[in-house]
Design brief:
- It contains seven helices and 13 strands.
- It has a six-stranded antiparallel β-barrel. It has a two-stranded antiparallel ribbon with strand order 1-2.
- The chain is an alpha+beta fold.
- Among the domains are: 32 residues, no CATH class; 135 residues, Lipocalin (Beta Barrel), CATH 2.40.128.
- About 5% of the residues have low confidence.
Length: 313
C-alpha cells in the first residue's frame, strides 16, 4: 500500500511540475511580445548593393548593351483551345463551338440542329390584288380638259408680245464720259458735231479707247444747242451732251441767237394754225422755216462736254 501511495504522489508531482513549467513559459512569452511591441524603430536597415552600376566608355556601348526585356508568363497547365471567353476550362469546348456554328447555319433554313426539330413554317398568305375599275368616260373627259388647257397655253404664248429690255440687252455704260470738240466747227440744225474722248470709256460693256471720234447731231432750243449721240465707234447708244461749264444740257448760245432759236420753237406751233381768210399766216411760217434753216452756231476747238445717258436726265 505504501508503494502505491508513493507512486501516486510521484505522478501527481510530475503533472503539477509540468503545469507550472507550462504556465511560467507561457507568461514569459506573452510578456516578451508586449515589450517588443512597445519598442520604437530607431534606425532602418538598408540592404547593401551586391553589384555596382556598370560604367561605359561611350553612349554607343551603353545602347548596344541594352536588351529588350520580354514578359515571360508561366505556361498554362490547360490547353488554350479548351479555355472559353471567361477563362474557364471546358474539355468539350471545340465540340460545342462546332455545334453552335452549325446551329447558326441551319437556323437560317428554319431547322434546329441541336433539337433535331423543324419549325412550323405555316401556309403562305396569298395577297389578292384588287384592281379598281376606272370609267372610260372620266378618262376621256380629263383628256379633253387637258387638251383644251394645253391649247390655251399655246395661244397665250404666241399671242404674247414682250417688250425688249434694252438695259438688260446692252451692257454697262460709264455714268460720266468726258469729251472735247475736235476743231472749230460751224453747225446747223441736224448737222453733226465731231468730238473725241478725253479718256478711256465703257460703252454698253465695250471698252472704247481714248481719242476715239464721237459724232453728235445738233438741234436748237432758246439759248441752247442740244447734241444727241446715237452710237460711238459703231456701238449703239443713247447719250446727251452736258455743258461742262454750267452743267445744263446742250451748249450755251449767246443772246443774239435767242430770237432765231425761238423761231425754231414756234415752227411747230405755226404749222398747226389754219385761220380761214388769213393767207399771210402761211407766209410768216415760211419765213420762220427759212430763218431756222439758216441758223448757224460756231463751236470752238477743245470745248469740254460731258456725255450722260438719256435715262439719267
Amino acid at each position: 500500500m505504501k508503494v502505491k501511495v508513493e507512486k501516486n504522489k510521484i505522478v501527481f508531482a510530475i503533472v503539477l511540475a509540468t503545469l507550472l513549467i507550462f504556465l511560467i513559459s507561457y507568461s514569459v512569452m506573452v510578456m516578451g511580445d508586449d515589450e517588443s511591441d512597445n519598442e520604437n524603430l530607431e534606425q532602418t536597415l538598408v540592404p547593401e548593393l551586391e553589384e555596382e552600376q556598370k560604367e561605359y566608355d561611350s553612349k554607343l556601348d551603353a545602347i548596344n548593351d541594352l536588351k529588350e526585356v520580354r514578359e515571360t508568363n508561366a505556361p498554362s497547365i490547360y490547353d488554350e483551345k479548351l479555355l472559353d471567353s471567361t477563362g474557364l476550362y471546358n474539355p468539350d469546348l471545340p465540340e460545342l463551338e462546332k455545334q453552335r456554328i452549325v446551329d447558326s447555319i441551319y437556323k437560317s433554313n428554319r431547322i434546329n440542329y441541336s433539337e433535331r426539330t423543324y419549325r412550323n413554317i405555316g401556309t403562305k398568305r396569298v395577297v389578292q390584288k384588287t384592281e379598281q375599275k376606272i370609267d372610260s368616260s372620266e378618262i376621256i373627259a380629263e383628256q379633253k380638259i387637258k387638251a383644251k388647257e394645253l391649247g390655251l397655253e399655246h395661244q397665250l404664248f404666241f399671242a404674247s408680245d414682250p417688250k425688249r429690255n434694252e438695259i438688260s440687252v446692252l451692257g454697262a455704260t460709264d455714268d460720266v464720259i468726258y469729251v472735247v470738240v475736235n476743231g472749230d466747227q460751224t453747225v446747223m440744225v441736224n448737222s453733226r458735231l465731231r468730238m473725241r474722248l478725253m479718256q478711256d470709256a465703257t460703252i454698253n460693256g465695250k471698252r472704247i479707247p481714248k481719242n476715239t471720234d464721237v459724232f453728235g447731231f445738233i438741234s436748237f432750243q432758246p439759248n441752247r444747242a442740244l447734241i444727241e449721240i446715237e452710237n460711238i465707234d459703231h456701238h449703239p447708244t443713247s447719250l446727251k451732251a452736258i455743258d461742262f461749264q454750267d452743267g445744263s444740257e446742250g451748249i450755251y448760245v449767246q443772246n443774239s441767237f435767242r430770237a432765231e432759236a425761238t423761231g425754231e420753237v414756234l415752227d411747230d406751233i405755226i404749222q398747226d394754225i389754219n385761220v380761214p381768210g388769213v393767207p399771210q399766216v402761211g407766209g410768216v411760217s415760211k419765213v420762220l422755216r427759212r430763218r431756222n434753216r439758216n441758223v448757224k452756231v460756231t463751236v470752238l476747238n477743245n470745248y469740254k462736254l460731258i456725255l450722260k445717258s438719256d435715262n439719267r436726265q
